[in-house]
Amino acid sequence: MKKLTAILLSALLLVSLLTACTTDEPVSSTPDTPTVKADVNIVAIAGPTGVGLVSLMDENANGNAANNYNFTVVNDPQKAVASVLNGDADIAAVPTNLASTLYKRTSGNVQVLAVNTLGVLYMLENGDSVKSVDDLRGKTIYTSGQGANPEYILRYVLEKNGLDPDKDVKIEFVADNDVLATLVTNGTAKVAMVPEPKATACLLGNKDLKTVLNMTQEWDKVSDDTSALMMGCVIARKEFVQNNKAAVNAFLTEYESSINEVKTDVAAAANSCVTHGIIPKAPLAQKAIPNCNLTFVEGADMKTQLAGYLKVLFDYNPAAIGGALPTDDFYYAR
């Protein structure tokens, strides 16, 4: 009897040990859940392209993210470029034309994972004369971004509405968005195309200003569904994607949820924008976020609409997207 008891106790002890050994083993519940947490370095540019990440940043800080994310926020897009080129960044939130340029510079070693923002440009007026694009005829339009996205977006919308950008309007380019905001707020610029969150800052700084045109809506009116005004995206190094596909897919799932959370709870997101250095002040962020046109578009829809947008930019200036249109391998699909 003592021998039988000893055998049973030994068997129970063995089962307990085996259970203890397997309890802490990670389990993959879905194909998009990594079996272990991957270390992922993410660079975001302060402003609209980084806004959709803030909820995920909060989850990561609390230890609740699917991966171990290391976030870096920069103010200069060229710092994001450098991080991708030297391999410090695995994933980066950048303007779409910059993504195309990086694809070219890396000989195809960059993929766009998803589009995160549509247009963030708004036409502001100190007055009450502009109700449509045609009302811009004869006006001086202040804007930044000569030789970059803002110029080509403005030219495209004007031309599609029958206006010659070089004859029917005067486009007054300024050095940067800070200068632009100053000229708009002090009343020097009566009509100006301004990006968020500077557009909201201008409206808060001068009560005589009003938003008269949403350039995303104006683009949609004339683009016949062959393109969309997709100004921001998230990219990854192709080598990282190939070696960490489960981690990348898990990130995309979390990123989509993060964007939806930001759009749902704007007040909380505004505070998170300040915490993570995306937008400097919560009241400004809370008013600007709804105008940032946050979105999450991936796969076939992203490829069709983004390719159409890049083609518009290419037709104006090939250098704006790196000198050539990206091929199919630029567009990631889960």
What does this molecule look like?
The N and C termini lie far apart (61 Å). The protein has helices at 2-23, 48-51, 54-61, 77-85, 96-105, 149-160, 177-185, 198-205, 215-222, 238-243, 245-264, 266-275, 282-288, 299-316; strands at 39-45, 68-74, 91-95, 110-117, 121-126, 140-143, 170-173, 191-195, 209-214, 232-237, 294-297. Strands 2-1-3-10-4-11 form a six-stranded mixed sheet, with helices on both faces. A three-stranded antiparallel sheet has the order 8-5-9. It has a two-stranded parallel ribbon with strand order 6-7. The longest helix has 22 residues, at 2-23. By secondary structure, it is an alpha/beta fold. α6 links the parallel β6 (140-143) and β7 (170-173). α7 (177-185) runs parallel beside α8 (198-205), α11 (245-264) packs across α12 (266-275) and α12 (266-275) packs across α13.
